[in-house]
Hints:
By secondary structure, the protein is mostly helical. Helix content is 69%, strand content 0%. The longest helix has 34 residues, at 88-121.
Amino acid sequence: MATALETAARPAEPARREPARRGRRPPLTPYLFLLPALLLELAVHVVPIATGIWMSVKGLTAFFLRDWSKAPYVGLANYRSALDAQSSSGRELLHSLVVTATYTVLTVGLSWLLGVTATVLLQRPFRGRNLLRTLFLTPYALPAYAAVITWSFLMQRDNGMVNHVLVDQTHALDHRPFWLIGGNSFATLVVVSVWRTWPFAMLCLTAGVQAIPTDLYEAAAIDGAGFGRQLAAITLPMLRPVNKVLVLVLFLWTFNDFNTPYVLFGRAAPHAADLISVHIYQSSFVTWNFGLGSAMSVLLLLFLLAVTGLYLAGTSRRERHG
């Protein structure tokens, strides 16, 4: 009996660990699961980028479409032509860059502002809130081609609904302006892009707002903080991580936007709405100068990488100091 009690009271001996096997190979299962994604990444991104860089140092024009390998090597001549402000291609590329930057700033800024406004107004529950959210998300849910083609019909000069309302119904204008050509084409492009983009901003900001504890608003209300003070002291600071990613995504999407101007204006975009994506397309598939178009694409890639790196570095430094 005593022996049994002593045995029960004796502390249990720690389990002996088996010595690690020397030279044990890591399991291959995780790499096998990652292999399809790696192959897809190579096929979709890495191989086209490498091909574009190869084409950018070649004099690949319409004369060598039958056999691309026979295109002469021109080195950095395409890059010098694209960056030369004295040449016609350099001036056109610089103009396209300015138009694209202005278009991106206006689209991202207005989309973010509308998204914040809608998110704040729909933050508190009321009757019909879910219906309004559904209606606001409709432009983002529609296919891009169907939505932009609809806008192209609305903006027609002679039989479009916009001119019909402005001229025939409300008499706000005494003439029918052109919205798809000339100087008004840039404003039309911004309106259509903002209409398609701001619901995505509202969707991301709504998810961020729902993660903010309601106790903060209740405590602020008890302290006498009004709507504006709560917005400035609670909502916007708490949405800073969401805004960091949202602004970057909107910037990349808008700067590289090709579907909206191409469907809205066709292959020949107006000079006032000559975005850099359409400009590169015209240089490659309209004038058949694939070498110059590839050089422009590589320069655009380097520009976006530089801007993205500076943006992430600036926001990270602000977070550390904040």
